[in-house]
Amino acid sequence: MMQRRKHMMSREKFISILFRQQQSGLSIADFCENEGYSHSRFYLWKQKYGITERELLAEAVSVEPDNKNPSGLEYINRTT
User: Fold this and answer.
1) How far apart are CA 77 and CA 6, in angstroms?
2) How far is CA 57 from CA 16, 20, 38, 79, in A?
3) DSSP of 13-72, one letter per residue?
4) Do 15 and 56 form a contact (C-beta atoms < 8 A)?
5) Distance CA 28, CA 42 (A)
6) Which residues contact residue 42 at a Cβ distance below 8 angstroms, ignoring those fewer than 6 apart?
7) InterPro entries of this UniProt entry (predicted)?
8) What are the residue boundaries of the structural domains of the chain, listed by start?
9) Separation between Cα atoms, residue 40 and residue 28, nearest integer Å
10) Tens digits of per-residue pLDDT, 37-69?
């Protein structure tokens, strides 16, 4: 068991942690155990910041640009 971390959690930092948890495929309890977070604190942060699955997906899309288009800009081909 890892030693528990004690620090303030910013919204941005928690979004990053929540995204990592979802990408890991682990349950919240298992992820928190591996990372040294209390799973009750994890749920408290989730409630405090009110992060929804839709919001998490939007954050992930804005943070991880497509390799084919690293600028993240979309180009529309108009033929009219």
Assistant:
1) 51
2) 11, 12, 24, 32
3) HHHHHHHHHHHHT--HHHHHHHHT--HHHHHHHHHHHT--HHHHHHHHHHHS--TT-TT-
4) yes
5) 8
6) 17, 21, 28, 32
7) Transposase_8_domain
8) 11-63
9) 10
10) 998 999 898 888 887 777 776 766 655 555 555
Compute the distance between CA of residue 80 and CA of residue 11 in angstroms, rounded to an integer.
44
Tokens of 8: 């303030």
Token pair in block for residue 35: 């990372």
Place of tokens 């180009």: 75
CB 70 within 8 A of CB 37: no
Cα dihedral 36/55/51/9 (nearest 10): 50
Structure tokens at 16: 């990053």
Which residue reads 């979309």 in tokens? 74
Q: How many CB atoms lie within 10 A of CB 65?
A: 12
Q: Which residue in this structure is represented by tokens 């209390």? A: 38
* 0.85 exceeded by pTM: no
